[in-house]
Amino acid sequence: MDRRHLSKAAKEFILKVAYGFKEVASHSFVEPWNVSYYFINDLKRFLASPEDLRGDRILFDLEVASGVSYNELKEYWDKLTIEEREIAIRTIIMSMASFGLISVVGAIAVNAEPHMREEILRIASRYYKGEISYEELVSELERVLWPTREERLKYWKEIEEYEKAMALEEYLPEEVVKEIIKAYFLEMMRLQMYDTYLLIPSVYPNLLE
Amino acid sequence: MNGKPLSKAADDLLRKVVQGFQESTEHSIVDPWDLSYAFIADIRRIEMSSEDLKGDEVLDVLAMASNVNYIELKEDWDKLSIEERKEVVHRIIEAMASLGLMSALGTIAIYAEPYKKEEILRIASKYYKKKISYDEMVSEMEDVLWPTRREKIRYWKFIESFRKAMSLARYLPEAVVRAMIHVYLINMIRLQMFDNLWVIPSVYPRLLE
Questions:
Q1: Contact B202, A204 (CB under 8 A)
Q2: Which ipTM score applies to this complex?
């Protein structure tokens, strides 16, 4: 069974948690990629022993991750087969991973110093064309962002965070990762090439409501 | 954009105001496009008045927009020729307009309902391929975002804000506006077409410092 053939209850359950998670991660004091990483690790434990999906312990974790109440989640959960539960959790993990990965890639595109942008664009183009692997992209970018030994020692915590955030890619289809890299590292960086003072916003308030 | 090189004092003034403005918009309770619109209007009013840029009236506006103190700005300002002042002010306006416009485009790419995004992508593609003008694009998008007469009456304030935000394009070169539309309304929306669970973050915290 794949996601397209899930029941209405399963689809609604996924949407509730995924959109709730987005709200939670957007307003958290913790960086969004760290929130993704933390909850994904939590959820993975349940997938490792599918027996756990028979019970509802996982709903306590999903309640914290999404801000949706246990009772509301339980109403959906009770309607799902074990197979559907597993697919729903895998899908929620993908959604969390995409949010975390887009946040970190966007943060780099927005905040990287002008002299770094050209290098990042060059490396990202090589990845996009299939000339280097994702791991090579991550490690080459790391060297651009923290080029000296001194910086690597000083910013070891940020580097660790960066590596964890970029590792969220493992939960996503390759073509999606490529599109994320294209949108943020190729198109957005190219946009900034027009002028150093072309400011990419880091906060997007809601204009529509 | 990318006109002739600026003197050090001009470059310093430009950098201070632009970076300060970006910081201010990130922490302001006013939406970034509204801030851009208001400060640009103020600067343009002074530019066109009898006092124009010979005096330092414009510094009051720049100090307020950037949160950099007047005296610090004045030190750089006094070193500039009238021509340089014009160039710096022109580039500050462009930077403010780019931040305001991109914020508005980003918010549409993030918050528009999924079925509206598809329509917006179609309209943006028509503009990008030069099949319609910028003004036509804005008006078609408005009809997608607020389709009924009832919505247009109820959300008139948002519509006004949307129009003002989109009008910031007039301060930017056409090529830059097209590149922005490509990044936000084509690439970002396409990315979300893979799956309605790929949510685009609305905040990009700093990873790099």
A1: yes
A2: 0.83
